[in-house]
Amino acid sequence: MGLVLLQCAHCGAPLDVRDAVTIVKCGYCGYKTERARFVTIAEKTPETFAPPKVWRPPAHVPASSDADLPYKKKLSFGGVLFIVAMVALGPSIVAFALLHDSGTFSPKVDVLAGKSIDGTPAALAVTFGGGRVSDTSLYIKLDHPEIDQIYFTWEKRAPSHPYNIGFIVRQGKMVPSAVCARLAETLGVFGDKYWNLGGASVSCDPSGTLSAHVSVPKDAARDDHGRWKKRVDTLYRVVIDALLGAKPSVTNDELRRVLGAGYAVSDLARVDIEVEVDVAAAMLQKALNGAVNTDDGQRFTIQLAGTPLPQVSLSWTNSKGGKLSSGTFYSADQKTLGAGQAKVAACLTKTLGTPEIHETDHLKKTVYYSFARQIHLYDAYVSVQTTNNATWKAFINGLDGCTL
Q: Are 282 and 148 in contact (CB under 8 A)?
C-alpha cells in the first residue's frame, strides 16, 4: 500500500498518509476530517523522511502561527513529514510550496458570487484573485465569521472543471442553520441534512459540513455531453446564494432543466408510461426536459416539490418492446411517512377508489395499501406497477395537492 503526501487543511503541515485512508488526523494539531479536504502535495512520498519534532503553522492557514505544535505520535496511517524536505521531491513540490502560500489573501464571501468556476485550479485562482493551488485542488481563505475556507477539487480525467465544492468551518464554529434552511427551500427537498439526485448532491450539517458534489462520467458510454459541469455550476450558485442569504439566482427552469428538481406533481401527467424503452428517454426529455437519466436510458430520476413523496424513480424493462417496469415515489428521507401514510392513502382514495389494506406487522401496526392491485402505498414509498396511462393519471391527480 503506497503513501501520498497531503497538506493539513488546518495547520498546513504535510501529512504522509496511506493512499487507502479516507479519514485523516494530523499528528500535530489533531485536526481530523475527510481526505478530500486535504490538498495533495505528491502522489508518492519517499520512505526515508521523518517528521520534525515540532511544526510552526504558516501565516496563511487557520491554525495560530504564534506557537510551535509538538509532534504527538506516529499515526497508524503514516507520520507527518517536514516541509523543508519537500525540496528532495523535485521542482514540482518546490513550486507547490511557493504557489500555495498566498499570504493573508482572505476575500469576503460575496466575492465568490457571480464568478464562473470553469477552468483549471490555477485558472480559478486567477479568477478569484488568489488561493492555495495544486494540480487537483484550490483552497481560498475567507473573511467570514463561521466559514474559514472554500475549496474546489478536480478529477484528473477532467482537469478543466471542478466536480466538488466544499467549505471548511472555523474551529469551534458551526454552519449557520439558516444556510441549510435556505438550501432546503431552494432545492425543495433536504432529508436528513443531505440532498441527492442522479449523481449530484449537497450536504449541509450545522455541526460542520457544507459541500456540493457531482459525479463525473467515467467513460465515453456514460458521457453526458458536459451536463455534469452545468450541474456543478448550478449547485455552486445555489450554495453561495444560501451562504450569503441572497435571493436565489437559479431559476425554477434551471432547477428542472439542469438538476431535474423542483417539478410539480401535476407535471408528471405529461409522462407517457405506455411508451417502449427505446423512446422513453426522448419522451421524458420532451415531457419534463430535465429528468436525470441514471442508467443508460433505462432508469430515470425526478424530484418533485410540495409533496410528501418527492423522490421519483421510473424504470423501463431493457428488452425489445420493454415497458415501464416500476415507478417508485419515496419520502424525503426515504425512511418513513409515519402517520402521513394514512393521509396519503386518503388522498389517493379520492381518485383511485377504496384500497385493500394489508397488515405486515400486527404488533407495530404496520400496513400497506393496495389500489386496484397496481399501486401500493408502503410506510416510506409508493410502488406503481401499471403501464396504463389512465391509472397513472388518476394516481397523479390524487397525489397532486396532497400534504401531510
A: no
pLDDT in tens, 293-310: 765 678 888 889 889 999
Residue predicted with more confidence, 355 or 109: 355
Q: Nearest Cα to 11, choosing from 54, 53, 57, 51?
A: 57
Termini Cα distance of the chain: 52
What's the rounded Cα separation, in Å, for the pair 62 and 65?
Answer: 9
Closest CA to 294 of 264, 316, 266: 316
Q: Is the pTM of this model over 0.85?
A: no
> Which position has the grid cell 502535495?
41
List Cβ<8 Å contacts ≥24 apart for 292-297. Answer: 292/197, 292/198, 292/199, 292/259, 292/260, 293/198, 293/224, 294/198, 294/199, 296/221, 296/222
CB atoms within 10 A of CB 21: 18
Q: Which three cell numbers stand for residue 231?
A: 450541474
Give the total residue count for the chain. 404
Q: Comparing C-alpha atoms, which of 137, 127, 166 is closest to residue 150?
A: 166
Q: How confident is the model at residue 90 (pLDDT cuts 50, 70, 90)?
A: very low
Q: Count helices and strands (H / E) in the chain.
A: 8, 22
- 294 vs 153, which has greater pLDDT? 153
Note whether 377 and 369 are within 8 A (CB). yes
The strand pair at 164-169 and 200-205 is best described as: unpaired
Alpha-carbon span 179 to 191, nearest angstrom: 15
Q: Where are the beta strands (DSSP E) in 154-297?
A: 164-169, 194-197, 200-205, 209-214, 292-293
Structural contact between residues 234 and 204, judged by C-beta atoms closer than 8 angstroms: no
| DSSP-derived pairing of the beta strands 3-7 and 14-18 | antiparallel
